[in-house]
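Narrative progress, year one. The postdoctoral researcher (J.K.) led the effort to move from monomer predictions toward full complexes, under supervision of the PI. The following entry was the first complex the group processed end to end, covering 877 residues in total.
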Amino acid sequence: MTTNGRAAGAPAGSIYDLGYRHYEGERHGRMYATWALYAESLRGIWGLGRSASAKAAPFILLGLYSFFAVMQLAFSSFIGQAIQSGEDVGELFAYDTYFSQWFLFVVLFCIAQAPELVCRDQRYSVLPLYFTRSLHRFDYVLAKLGALASALFILLMVPMIALFVGDVLMERDTLKAIGDEWPKALPTLPACMLAAASLAATSLAVCSFSPRRAYAAISLGAYILIYEAVAGIIWGMGNDAGWAWADKPQLFGPLTSLMGATYWFFGKVPNQDYGFPPTLGAEAYVLSALTLMTLFAVTLLLRYRRLAA
Amino acid sequence: MTAADRPLAAAPIIELDHVARWYGNVVAVNDISFNLGPGVTGLLGPNGAGKTTLLHMLAGFLAPSAGDVRVLGRRPHLDPAVYRQIGLVPEREAVYPFMTGLEYVRFNARLQGLPDVDEAARRAIVQVDLVESQDRAIGTYSKGMRQRVKVAGALVHDPQVLLLDEPFNGMDPRQRLAMMDLLCQMADAGKTILFSSHILEEVERVGSEILVIVAGRLAASGDYRAIRALMTDRPHTVTIRSSDNRRLATALMAEPSVFAVELGELSLSVRTAHLSAFRRLIAGASRDAGVSLLEVAPADESLESVFEYLVRR
Amino acid sequence: MTALPHSTSVSLIPHIALVTVRQLLGRRRALLLLLLSAVPVLIAVLYRLAGAEKVDGFAGGVLEVLCLNLILPIMAVLFGTAAFGAEIEDGTIVYLMAKPVARWALVTAKLLAAIGLTAVLAVGSVVIASAIAIVPLGERGLQATEVYGTAMLVGAVCYVALFVALSLFTRRALLLGFGYVLIWEGALSNLLPGIANLSIRQYSMGVGQLFYDLAPERARLEPATAIPLAAILVVVATLLATRRLMRLELSGSGD
């Protein structure tokens, strides 16, 4: 640091060259900024590049969610032998019903990680830093949505892959098994994609309305769980009372719409065998899932459009 | 570093003995010892030096990893009783926004177990000059008013020790002066006040006793002018006005304790390594040269130069 | 310099509790809670409109699944984690800690505030909903109201105590709370019946049985087991919270 000159006399000013350098090189644009935000958010969801305790929640939930699929994989040889010898092994976990059984852990994952994505930036007033760069508000929302959707897709696919490998190993002839299994497993890809996108939109939209993580998390948990519970109650009540509209709430449930949509991908009908109202076709659920996803994504965009930065 | 012992009639109010605090691999406070008695002491240091950690240890919110912290002879950690004699004004701005100023001070008075809550609250509010705003919600207060109401809450039980973390943050100059006056008043009344700051002009004005912390270590303690005198490897600059500057300059260049002389239009700047030796010789040198001295002033005795030196050492 | 006498600390509890209540009823929270409490009432209205007559259906489907298993824990998490959580997060806990008040008095005051609010809202919504839907249906309706009203009260006390203590130990108290309710009390207790002894839901239903005997699948504990277990939980949670509050270390931000 230069010392202050003590020369009395005419006021003069000097600018000292402290060795700061200008950056004259290549500057990436919007796309790169969006991609960077997406990648950083995705890493943040899984706690990569953060402390160990940040990794605990997502990975524990991943482990819990895939636990049963992995167990089925681990015991695949035993199960395979049992099937060969004609024993009844009961209901195995399958691609189309897995989410319906273990959705709880996916919900917990959303509650745990969605607030981190959108609440921190609001709480610490960091948004101006983003929006005065080449990143537009739309890009910000896109990146965050993409990150959570990707993370959820990974979460949902891990047990599917485990189931696939398990099913293949249950057969003697591996190559043939892969050939047989492949078309059975294929519908799970679009199903998981839809589920991931829809849940991501819902979670971020609900969480973005509060800068405090606690409120956001509780609001999201309350919305998902209570809506589903109430929808089920209304169906039960309305069915007995003969209300025609009693089956509609379940159509728009954050979870039931996805479960129904999954069945459509597998060509099955969500009827009473699966615990669904018998009156709606599977297409209705797909449409409602897509509608919900769009609605929440638009809400999220509007929210960020109006947010003061 | 050596303890800054001041001649104290009674036992020191605040004692730190080889106190250290670390978090895993990071050492926040590193082997600090000092004693404080009544009066105002400024705790200086750059950000991240450990000022807040030190204050929190004094306030009993953190246990030292090593060493002994004592306030009024007791260890403040895990001892809620000590808060009867300690008033803490933390850095955090947020204070119950839904309470009025008066309610907040009364709440504090109550939690201190004071017998006459209303009287104590009234007194404290008058002391910080918040009487006009006492019935408004704290959420409507300006930053400076919020600081003052925090101080009122910390004073309401008339504690012997007052710890303030960056108390002048966000205050305008008039409020700052008022707060400084308040601190000086309380120091005169015999209280022990320790406040942290990184704004040197504030510290200079309130009192001359300082503790300088750099990177967790105590870099200096005591009267800052005395510290300046101790900084012998850095030459002092003295500005002199005389009847004949050039002649005086020539005479002074011959002196061994002077190693640079700069002739300005109106005054002479002398750089000397030994200020005390220079002080002794200047009168004789000017008389011998036949020059009369008009003004002799040390030019860089400010706290800023002291601080700059200590931080970079 | 002595600590405050115990009598003084006790007399301060209502004041601290009242301040906590005012803190907890901030605008956003109040809105969320109003919505949560309104849901059972709205469903009760629908029930009447549907002309349904089955007390058991309402009790099992609405009072148990919705109110006891979902709405109550959510409310308890909301108040329980906020009682200390908000102040710890923004550092204003120092204002309470830097006082000679005994730490157990601080914990008790916070608990009273959080439990009080949760209980009033939870029990209130159940009572009102039942009054609309099942009480007019006769004696069974009244009994069901008594059972679930009591269960909600016991649940409120236990859940809040648990979450207040949890919030002093970890920053992820909210997630752990949800996980406990959904996984431990929900999914696991169906698989492993022994868990009933460690499930607040079962304590609540167990105490509810004071008014009416329920089938073993619905309530696995008898009142004689449930009451002591619940009491132990509350006492242990309070003790742990007090101990933790004493040792709470505030390092301050940045410097």
